[in-house]
Amino acid sequence: MNSLDIAFTVRELSMFLKEGFIDNIYIVKEGFILIRVRAGSRYDVLVDPPRRIHTTEIEYEKPRMPPSLCMMLRKHLVGGKVKDISQHRFERIIVFSIATRRGDYKLYVELFREGNLILVGPDGRIVCALRRKRMKDRAIVHGAEFKLPPAVGLDPFSDPIDEIVENFPSEDMPIAKWMTIKLGLPSPYLDEILARIGVEKDKMLKDLPRSTPVAIVETLKNMVSSAGDPPFRSYIYLSSDDTPIDLSPFKLEIYRDLRYEEYPSFNAALDSYFQRLASSEGYGEVVKARRKQAAIILKSMRKIESRIAKLESKASEYKCIADTLSVYIDQLRAVASFILESKKSGMGEEDIVGEASIMASNLGLKLVDIDFSSGLFRIEIDGCKAELSFTKNIYESISRYYKMYKRRYGEIESLRLKLEELKRDLSKLESRVVGYPQVKVRRRMWYEKFNFFNSSEGFLVLAGRDASTNELLIKKYTDPSDIVFHADIHGAPFVVVKTEGRSPSQTTIMEAAIFAASYSQAWKDGFSSMDVFYVSPSQLSKSPPPGQYLPKGAFRIIGSRNYIRSVPLELAIGLIISGDSRVELIVAPVSAVKARTDIYIKIAPGSIPKNKLIDLIKAKIIEKARKVFEGGLPVNIFEDLQHRLPAGGGRIVDE
Hints:
Helix content is 37%, strand content 25%. By secondary structure, the protein is α+β, with helices and mostly antiparallel strands. It folds into four domains: 3-140, ibrinogen binding protein from staphylococcus aureus domain (ibrinogen binding protein from staphylococcus aureus fold), CATH 2.30.310; 161-278, Orthogonal Bundle (Helicase, Ruva Protein, domain 3); 310-406, no CATH class; 446-653, no CATH class. The strands form nine sheets. It has a six-stranded antiparallel sheet with strand order 20-21-23-22-24-27, sandwiched between helices. Strands 6-7-8-9-10 form a five-stranded antiparallel sheet, with helices on one face. The protein has a four-stranded antiparallel sheet with strand order 1-2-3-4. A hairpin with a 2-residue loop joins strand 17 and strand 18 (384-389). Helix 9 runs antiparallel to helix 10 (349-362). Residues 431-441 have low confidence and may be disordered.
């Protein structure tokens, strides 16, 4: 993902997750993190440094034993509220601001080089990190003060346009290279921008007018504004054999001749794009080869960085020596002249050293030694040690140190250019290397954002979980032929039977009514039964009566209602084997569960707190399942039970 991809992703994530609560954190594989957030619906945020971050609808198999990093993240973040999600400047850095009882934490996701995930505590110090390392400008280790990396480019959205123009040099550099390095805009966005302003990719900066960066930034901003507000309708572009080629959060003119698929959000497009890319034939070998290549590049970069650090140290030393010698040039000339004249006069070497040492000391210098055979004397001034010739002009000795300083910096500049080239190569490689854990995955179905079950007759029955999903269920997922249920009490979800043109019998009608009654306030209040009514979707309206207001998730019922009196509040929790041979936990009316499995228990409203009730349910389910599932139940099969049961306490109903 590049900086612009991240900008669009962050805007959507902020809309989806802000004010939501972190429910759990998983590490599927080293460097592959899932952050589960409850924000009306359930969202799984996939974090895969340095490649990508987005929500995912795919169910990944969780490890039985979470690694220590996962436990540390859970300890500090689970239960915390997501207060903000932002992008640092136009860099490939995403920042989650999370409020907890211990204080406000920040979770930094870095999608550059080898990538990282860094948790920073309320005191600004690092709590834990995916990758620990020490660098010249910062240290990523436990307890260290967190520092952001130095900015590597310009921010076309916040930096003044004058500053961007100033960083548009007249030199032999292709415009595409400048856009990638300075603006963080690789293909396809740089291709789209250049196509729109009519500039060739290989055009040199020196051959372009100074107005070019202004046109680039204005075109970029127009492209972004054309996408509108999140969620962004997005596109995956396909080759002739349906292989995904690229994706974008707005239509790209450069791909106008390609077929494409539309997605309701950029996060959904990213999820599909990367998963399909990973499952392409032979992709695993390609990833392996590219990762090997990336490792070689990283190793070369580390060597160059180490060499640059040593050269900078040596260059600084030579510069310090040359500058110091220049200040004491008259004193040095006097000492050099004394040594040379004394030697010519036939004075003994020991006497020359003694006399010269006294003379140097009187002049604020320290004579270390004299090498009469080579014509050199060594001096120490203010901690700087230097070697000078007493047979040549003292300027030549000082000039030699300046030349050594310049030579080192020439090497440094060459190495920096090489380093930038390697960084670009690595960036291109990272954007193409999208490795995935080799785990069993299941794409989460659209209806799993609701409470749901399949009736005894096979009808899908859905219920809202809160005001947001109530609204979503009726507005987006209810068809004219469906049937809508509601318990006759304030504080109840809408329940929808998806008929798909068929007519459900009284069995399904009753099961839907039980579902509606059980997930209403009546369960929490301890009722054993409740009246439920059902209507046609055409009887629901968002227009309130005159002078009244309908809150989010509420609808006005127009016309007569069909009542079912004294509907019992009772549910069953059971284990089933789905069509793809997976073991699943279902929560539904008793008759619907009994139609699919013999392994179940029944619950009803009661005084046992929900957490303790869940422990009892787990124990009884495991006991009943032991004989059937000899290999044991899947890990985390009970992870969503807290959210799938009605609010309030309960009790287990004996058979």
